[in-house]
Amino acid sequence: MTFFSRHDMSSTIIAGPILRRASCERLVFWLASRRPVQFRLLLPDGAPQELTGERQQQLQVGDRCFIQLLDVELETPLPADTLVAYDLQWRTSEQDEWHGMADWASELCYPGERLPQLVIRSRLEEVLHGSCRKPHHVAPDGLVAADTWLRQCHAQPLSRPAVLMLSGDQIYADDVAGPMLTAIHQLIAELGLYPETLEGALVADSAELFTSPLNYYRRSELLPSIKGNQTLQQRFFEGARKPIFTTSSADNHLITLAEVLAMYLLVWSPEPWRGLSDAQPELSPERQQQYQTERQRLAAFVEGLPAVRRLLAHLPTLMIFDDHDVTDDWNLTAAWEESAYGHPFSRRVIGNALVGYLICQGWGNDPDAFRGDSMALLDAWSERPTSESQDRLIDHLLKFDRWHYHLPTSPKLLVLDTRTRRWRAESNLSHPSGLMDWEALTELQGELLNHEAVVIVSPTPVFGVKLIEVIQKIFTWFGKPLLVDAENWMAHKGTANVILNIFRHARTPANYVILSGDVHYSFMYDIKLRHRGGEPHIWQITSSGIKNEFPSRLLDVLDRLNRWLYSPRSPLNWFTRRRRLEITPHPPVSASKGERLLNRSGVGYVRFNDAGEPVCVQQITAEGAVDFVADKAAEPEASLSREER
C-alpha cells in the first residue's frame, strides 16, 4: 500500500469490524461508517438477524461519520471451540440491497475463506497481550506480527487465543508525528468531524487552531503566556526531557475531540488513508527533515494496516487505557491533577481524549457499564455538539469509576483501571499517587475471593525491575517524579502494602498471572511467598511494546546493573517491600548471560494449563517467536524481596 495514495473514496465502512466481546450468548462489534447504515448479522445455520434498538447503537460524530456498536444477544447460543463464520451485512435507508462482507470486506479473510471466522473458547486457555503502539516508531508493528502468527493457526480452533488484550497506549495522543497530524486534519475535513470552541487557549476554536502557525510542532505554545500557567505548561504540554529514560515530545499533542477520533480511525484501518493528499505544512528546514523521517516510518505503518484490520476482525479484542491514550503522566501526582484540571483548556484536552477512549475503546469493553447517564450525555452531545454539552460529558467522565471490568472466564480475567482511581499522596502533592486507592483495591479483593486461579491485567507491572524503580524513587525524593515517569505499584506505601496483603490473603487465589505492558521491554518473573509452601504462586508477565522499544544500550546497562545490585545475597534486598517474596526471572531463550529483559517489539502469547498456570510464554515478533523459559539451574534473584524486582 502506498502512503497517501489516491484510491476510490466511496467505501461506506471506514473502520472495523473489530470483534470486541464474544461469548456463546453474545457478540459485540465496533465499526465506523461514512453514512448511517442498518446492519444484520448472518451466522451459520441461522436466519439473518436484523439489528435494531439496543442491538445496534449508532453515534454520529461528524457530518459524514458514524460510530456503530453492535451488541447482539444471540437467539441460539453458538458452540464453543468451533470455527464460526460471520457475515455483517449492511444497507442504507435509501437501498433495499444488503451488502455482505464478501463484497465490502473480502480482504479481511484469510486464504481459503469467504468470511472472517471467530472462535469462542470454552476456557481462557490462550491469550495474546501487548501495549504501546506508536505509529511513527521505527520498530515493526507487533499487531502485524500477530496477524502473521494467527494466519498459521487460524483454522485450528483449539489453537486460537481466547482474547487479544491491549493493555494501554493504543494511541499516543501526546506524541503525534507531523505527517500523522496532516492525515488527521485531512480526515476531519473529509468526514466533517464536529468542530469545537476552546476556552482558555490562544486560539478560539478548532478552525483557528488548524490554520494557526502554532498548529505543527509548536502546540506547547498555545497556552496563555501568563505566570499562573507556567506549572501547567511544564507538566502537561511541553516535551519534558527525561535523561534516565527517553525524551518525549508533545509538540503535536492532540487537542480536539475530532483529532482524537480521526487518529483512532487512522491507526486501526487502511480505509481512512485512501485518497489523502500528499500536501504538507510549511515548516523550518529542521522540521522538514523531521517530517520526512516520520513520513517514511508512517508509510511502513500504513502498509501493515490491512493485516491489523484482519486480526481485529478475527479475535475478541479487549482494551484498557494507560497514560498515552490521554497524555503522558496522566494523574501521576495530585499536584499534576490540580494543575491540569484547574485550567479549562487542559481540562478540555484531557476530557476529549477520555471521550475518544469511551467511544472507541471503553464502550466495547463493557457496554452495560455505560448505559444510563454516560450514553445519555454522549447522545446529547452527538445530537447537539455544543461546548456546553461537551463539557457536561467531560465532567461526567472525569468522575466515572467503572472503567475496570472482568470476564467470567475460567480462569477469571480482571482488567484494572490504574489511572483514574488513584491513592493521592496528600502529605506531599508532588509525590506519585498510588495506582489504585484503598476503595478500588478493596473491590479488587472482593473479586478475587474463592477463585482458584485468576488472570489480572495491570497496565503497569506490579513487580517491575527494581533498579529502575529505585531510580524513580530517587527522582521523587528530589521532587522530580515527572522526569522519570515515577509510576509503579511500590511507589506509594499505602497501595504497595494493600496489594501485597491481597496476595497474602488466605481466601484469594492460589495462582495469579499478572499481564502488563507500559515499560517498552518484556520480561517474566516467577514469584512465590517464602515460608508459605509455595502459595500463592504469582507470575508477572510483561509484553511491551507493540510498536515501541526502550533505548537498547541504556536498557542493557540497567538490566545487568540490576542483576548485580539486587542479587540474592545483596543486603539491598532488605530495604525493599518485597523481601518476603522469592522472585525468579525467566530469561528469554535468546538472552546472553546475565540478560533478563527482552527489548523487541511484538505481542505476548501465554498458554495456561487447567490450574491457570502459564505453561508457555512467548513474545511474537516480526523475526519470529521468542520463548521465556525457567532456568532451573539459576538461583532465585529476589529470594529476599517482594519489592526487589
From TrEMBL:
- InterPro entries referenced in this protein's UniProt entry, alphabetically: Metallo-depent_PP-like, PhoD-like_MPP, PhoD-like_sf
- What organism does the UniProt record list as the source? Oceanisphaera arctica
Highest taxon of the source? Bacteria
**Which taxonomic lineage does the organism of this UniProt entry have?**
Bacteria, Pseudomonadati, Pseudomonadota, Gammaproteobacteria, Aeromonadales
Matches recorded under CDD domains: MPP_PhoD
Q: Spell out the protein name for this chain.
A: PhoD-like phosphatase metallophosphatase domain-containing protein
UniProt xrefs under PANTHER family: METALLOPHOSPHATASE BINDING DOMAIN PROTEIN, PHOD-LIKE PHOSPHATASE METALLOPHOSPHATASE DOMAIN-CONTAINING PROTEIN
Q: Which residues form a coiled coil?
A: none
